[in-house]
Write a structure and sequence with these properties.
By secondary structure, the chain is an alpha+beta fold. It contains 7 helices and 10 strands. The protein is about 30% helix and about 25% strand.
Length: about 290
């Protein structure tokens, strides 16, 4: 991968909420086999169902005005059925988008939880209450022509600890990737299992308190409402990288530059990825049952 340049080129958007977004601060190519078999071979079951909601900030938006809005949104969710929902906010890191100001990410255990959660949210009137109490603050998909993108996510590595709203901005990078013609998805799976994961263990020995982890995400076109504006063409999946802080991302990228050339070359034989898309991430909600 181009870190797939894994440590120097990868992803994740995550961000702002069910009917409104925030700060604190998205076509599948014709390959063989098609997307469904690709998912099945990378991992038998996804670890989560994740939605990325495009958001625009209104005239009354600021980091200060968003804080009480986020608290009110969390209070609304607290009054609903506990479905293990967590949420995150992403802002482009040193770049701008014409399609959105930020992204509100919702992480569900599965699609069934997502469908039930959205149904309850719509029936509750929470969106209207938040919009009335905080006018001109933020608007997110699926309103105002903004798109949302849903993914089944897979990983063989977990975060080192649970992040909270008290964390500093964390680093998330995203790459849109395709299997190189003729390569079976199982080749990528086996490379990650047999070579990349042991490489990461060696990285842990070099980097004190290393917080790097990753996800591979396959888009659910039935739920998604458009083509991700950050993708430059067709893709099979998104590779996402995460670090607890921006400084740890810099340290990890430097380590990859020094030690990861052979691993990068192996990824380059299996998949082809676009440039990394960097975000500053903020934790919006910890599941009530965690």
């Amino acid at each position: 991968m181009k870190r797939l340049k894994l440590l120097t080129t990868l992803v994740s958007i995550v961000a702002l909420g069910l009917a409104g977004c925030a700060d604190s601060e998205n076509a599948v190519s014709e390959v063989t086999p098609p997307p469904a078999p690709i998912q099945a071979e990378v991992r038998s079951e996804p670890i989560a169902y994740v939605e990325y909601l495009q958001c625009r900030f209104g005239e009354n938006y600021s980091p200060e005005s968003f804080a009480p809005y986020l608290a009110a949104w969390n209070a609304e969710i607290d009054d609903m059925t506990d479905r293990g929902l967590s949420a995150f906010g992403y802002l482009p890191n040193d770049w701008r988008s014409d399609a959105f100001d930020g992204v509100w990410v919702l992480r569900w255990n599965d699609k069934e939880s997502r469908d039930a959660g959205w149904q309850e949210y719509a029936a509750s009137g929470a969106a209207e209450r938040l919009r009335e109490e905080y006018p001109g603050l933020i608007e997110c998909a699926p309103n105002d022509g903004l798109d949302l993108f849903a993914f089944n996510t897979y990983s063989q590595k977990s975060p080192t600890k649970t992040w909270t709203q008290q964390n500093p901005p964390y680093a998330a990078t995203m790459q849109f990737c395709s299997m190189i013609d003729g390569k079976a998805p199982s080749v990528l799976r086996d490379h990650v299992t047999d070579e990349f994961l042991p490489y990461l263990k060696a990285t842990d020995a070099r980097i004190k308190d290393n917080t790097y982890w990753y996800q591979v995400a396959f888009m659910d076109e039935d739920t998604s409402t458009g083509d991700p504006s950050t993708a430059t063409g067709e893709f099979d999946f998104v590779w996402m990288n995460f670090w607890e802080t921006l400084d740890q991302q810099s340290e990890g990228s430097a380590d990859w530059a020094e030690h990861g050339a052979a691993m990068q070359a192996k990824f380059d034989e299996i998949i082809q990825c676009g440039d990394e898309i960097p975000y500053r991430g903020h934790y919006f909600r910890t599941p009530a049952n965690s």
